[in-house]
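Example record used in the benchmark description.
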Amino acid sequence: MFNVKCNLPKKIIEGCLTNKYTIFPAFCDVHVHFREPGFSYKETIKSGSRAAARGGYSAVCTMPNLNPVPDTLEHLNEQIKIIEKDSVINIYPFASITINQDGKELSDMREMAGKILGFSDDGKGIQDEELMKKAMKRAKSLGKIIAAHCEDNSLLNGGYIHEGVYANKHNHKGICSESEWKVIERDLRLAKETGCAYHVCHISCKESVELIGKAKEDGIDVTCETAPHYLVLDENDLEEDGRFKMNPPLRSREDRLALIKGVQNGTIDMIATDHAPHSIEEKSKGLEESAFGIVGIETAFPVLYTKLVKENLISLEKLIELMAINPRKRFGIPLGDDFTIWDLNEGIVVNSEDFLSKGKATPFEGMKLMGKCIATICNNKIIYIDEI
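Model output (structure tokens):
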């Protein structure tokens, strides 16, 4: 299936031939934050790409909340130069929808279109409906996707975890689900009107699944992603620790089950990690004060294999579609001969101290999982190999 020219060790080849190891097409993550340029103390292109390789990924799409924001070709090229110099995988940047991600004026979308897959202001929602409509029309004319962070700022009310049982019990300020689905509802209407290719980032609640499912039935060009943590954790798993704080937040059990159903029936097209590293200091201030964001690119497959496949919620083939095939189809990312090799019978215990990522905040700390990455190959080069 794959054209192996990369001199894998004999032990690994034998493991593949005897079915001790399993070969998959390399994974593709359409939503990561590698933080460079601008925030290299959190993550770098080098550390992020190495972490991705260890997670079985050969391709990722980076979000534009950087400094400088890739809102002009000059700014975008700063990021591309670092990628060309330091990345061990294929990285495809998103450019921003608006200048400096301020949500007021469109970025230089036409100038950047030839070097990016799509546009996003991830980390911030576009609040102005007319501006989003204008962005969709521009993206449509350029043949590019709008990947939207859907969040209505007027409904946040200072919240930082889900507005639910845990927030009420522990006296935390909550974020309502409407802050997410209300913007999705608006954007789906605009996508239908403009014909724009529209992708919804990190959906977390049942209403979002329902809206997107209906939009697909209506013929709207929409896809969406969710993340591993929304499929296997909910507000009942929260602890008073910054490693459980992300945006959108972990929601109710009912929301989690709706997301699983959305994965099963195809409403949810792909799983992305929203890998969002921060410094230890930024994540050590509890639920209220810690920065939003967790890491996940090194644990995504073991988490999903253990909690979804081994629990017979989805098939292994379906998981590979969600992690490797569908993201590439939607965003036009080639697979080539990239592949990853796993020992599905090897148990691991999540230990963030061993991460190749600079980020260490994971809600899966200490979790016992099945599946260990043995090697990842990208562009006929071994970019990760386990010390077996």
